[in-house]
Amino acid sequence: MTTRDDINRLAEVLEIFGPEAERWPAAERDRLEALVGREEAAGKLVVEARALAAVMAHAPAGAASAELKARILAAASPEAQGAPIIVRAPESPLRRLFGSGWSFGPAWPSAAVMAASLACGIYLGASGLAQPVFDDAFTMASLDSGVEDAEDLFKEDDESNLGEESML
Amino acid sequence: MYGVEPATRAPDRELASRPGRHNQHQALRDGRLMAAVARGDQHAYGELVETELPRVVAVARRVLGNDSEADDVAQEALLRLWRQAADWRAGEARVRTWLYRVAVNLAIDRLRRRREETGTEAPEIAEPASQQRQLEDQDLAAVVNDALQKLPERQRIALTLFHYEGETMADVAEVMDTSPDAVESLLGRGRRALKKQLAHHWQNIMPDAQN
Q1: Which whole-number Å values give the CA distances from A77 to A65, B41, B91, B152, in the listed order?
Q2: Domain ranges of chain B
Q3: What mean pLDDT value characterizes chain B?
Q4: What pLDDT sits at residue A143?
Q5: How close B130 gets to chain A, by Cα (Å)?
Q6: What average pLDDT score do residues B192-204 get?
Q7: What is the DSSP code string of A20-78?
Q8: Average pLDDT of B57-67?
């Protein structure tokens, strides 16, 4: 490899890895460091790279505020642990209503209406007063349960979840 | 598309994701802490927040160029760590790498939404084009930040993780879900672009280099 080739490679290494020799590829480090000590043009490239790094160091990083930290710790409640982020398969409507996975508001009002309607229907049916009333009441209660609407609530709405799962 | 096909891994990426000795030690420490977090240990979680939050915030701020959005991203990344602690596979990854990856993906989502809404990637704090001539009079920090924000997002992410955060090439590749060779290419192009954009400033602090 000629000196010119080495200098070209040094320029490439400086662009990729920066001016700190300890970050350069180990296999090339000794050769390139010797080049820097030997060739003025190589030394100039390193000085330029250091000047650029010094300017880049001015980029503001800021600091994490105490308020942000407090907000995160406050939100990390035991209840929040294991909260569903991605739901892969739809669950049965009954499990959604009564199971631990339900997290979108109380389901008991709809369930109570259904139970009351059923009891009313059984009474009416047993007494033989009005079979059509039973059918109407059950239909109304089913519509009120919101089970069909709940389907949408379990859909993943945050595509940014993608990418993190492979590391879990 | 970056960060949305986590299931596919090239062979060199497997190599890149294999932790080195230092990383292995850190992964074991992370595993112990994450086991405690999975049991609901808020003290262990607080320890992770204490050590990792500043770095996650720094990465998000450099990628997004917006403090408020960066704080939101950092908060969401840290809370996902808490919520999903039970699924953590000890020894396979560092918490920091995982957090960087989540934060970077969240930041990219925001950058894309920003592009869709405004037709530009530039953050809200960017200077209007008509004021670019006044850059010389601005604070150097703002100039450098502006130059970083003008880079394509993947070059900016690679520089942020490798140059500013001091991560290894393998870890940057892991976070960016790509190969070390691809990261090298991003770093080279990114630094070359910055060198050109910031020429006036680095030449000023190196008078001998002026032509």
Answers
A1: 20, 10, 25, 38
A2: 16-209
A3: 82
A4: 34
A5: 22
A6: 94
A7: -GGGS-HHHHHHHHHHHHH-HHHHHHHHHHHHHHHHHTTS------HHHHHHHHHH--G
A8: 94
Is residue A146 predicted with pLDDT exceeding 90?
Answer: no
Distance, in Å, from the CA atom of B209 to the CA atom of B33, rounded to the nearest integer, reads 50
**C-alpha closest to that of B97 among B22, B176, B159, B160:** B176
- Closest CB to B105: pick one of A60, A62, A164: A164
Superfamily of domain B16-209: PhyR, sigma-like (SL) domain (1.20.140.160)
Which chain B residue's Cα is nearest to A71?
Answer: B75
- CA distances from residue A93 to A20, A90, A109, A134, A140 in whole angstroms, order as listed: 60, 9, 15, 22, 17
Which of A72-89 are b and which e, b meaning 16 or more Cβ less than 10 Å from the residue's Cβ?
bbeebeeeebbeeeeeee
Q: Which of B87, B89, B187 sits opposite A16 (nearest CB)?
A: B187
Quote the CA–CA distance of B1 and A49 in Å, as a whole number: 32
Chain A contact set for B203 (CB, 8 A): 51
CA distance B159 to B187: 6
Indicate the pLDDT class of residue B119, thresholds 50, 70 and 90.
Answer: low
Per-residue confidence (pLDDT) for residue A116, from 0 to 100:
74
ipTM: 0.78
Among B10-14, B76-80, B167-171, where is mean pLDDT lowest? B10-14
Residue in B88, B141, B209 nearest the CB of A47: B209
pLDDT confidence bin for B27, thresholds 50/70/90? confident
Burial group, residue B53, by CB count within 10 angstroms (0-12, 13-18, 19+)? buried
Predicted pLDDT at A141: 36
Tokens of B109: 């989502």
In this structure, chain A runs to a length of: 168
CB contact under 8 A, B4 and A62: no
Cβ-contact B123, B64 below 8 angstroms = yes
- Judged by average pLDDT, the poorest of A25-39, B19-33, B56-70, B162-176 is B19-33
